[in-house]
Amino acid sequence: MTATTDPAQGEARADERPLQVRTPPRSRRHTLGRVGAYVAATLLALWVLVPLVLITFVTFVPRERVRDFPKTWWPQEWSADTFLFFWNSAGVRPALWNSIVIALMTVLMAMAIGAPAGYALARFTFRGANAYRITVLSTRAFPIVILSIPLAVTFLIWGIADTRLAVALMHTALALPFVVLITSSIFLSVSKDLEEAAQTLGCTPFQAFLRVSLPLTLPGLTAAAIFTFVLSWNEVFAASILTLRNPTLPALVLDALTVSPLPFQFAAGFFLMAPSLIFLFLIRKYLLGLWGRVER
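Structure (tokenized):
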């Protein structure tokens, strides 16, 4: 006898078999890649954040506790003694004032020169525009030490050596590539059609810029100015070479680093990094948009 099987029953049994879902190798590699990226990002964040947290905590403990080891994750006693020790040290306040004035001068000069260049890159098409962008960015690869020494000689000839103007000029030269590229991205985010529409209603090109493009780009331009301020605030090498009697705060700290006590060093580190962290936190959304998510 030959056993016969109903086709419908065979299909039903086939449906009852457990399904074996195999993860495609490509998806598995993608998952492993994402896990590796998260692990790398976490390690990188810890590598950056742990020293910042340590410096902040040590700055606000009593001076006699600065050398305690091992450090606790949360200080047992808080005090402004270490911070006030740095604040009242000789030369700190004049150097702080020099840093603020030089940073403001750098912002004014860099924005006055760099913003028009960025506008030209965004609005006009000309031969060699991409090469110009690369050339502007490549100037940052030029070693500061090679640039500072001829500039120091030039400033001596001009009679502005060891002045705020000399350091501001140097910081402007260092900040200009970033200002040009950032402002060009800002102006690209505003459609040129808006300016052309304003001109059809009777505005001159300059009036169309003032009444249409400038209000729309003002937050981004403010972010670029703050970024320039932070660049000047943190710059130390050129300021150390170009100043002797009127150093900026980073130059003063670098000069006193090997002879100053440990509380001075921790408080100085906190004082230098705090404004930068605050400014970058405030403008982070503009920076992310400028470099990666530009919308036309």
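The first helix runs from residue 7 to 16. Confidence is low (pLDDT under 50) at residues 1-5, 292-296.
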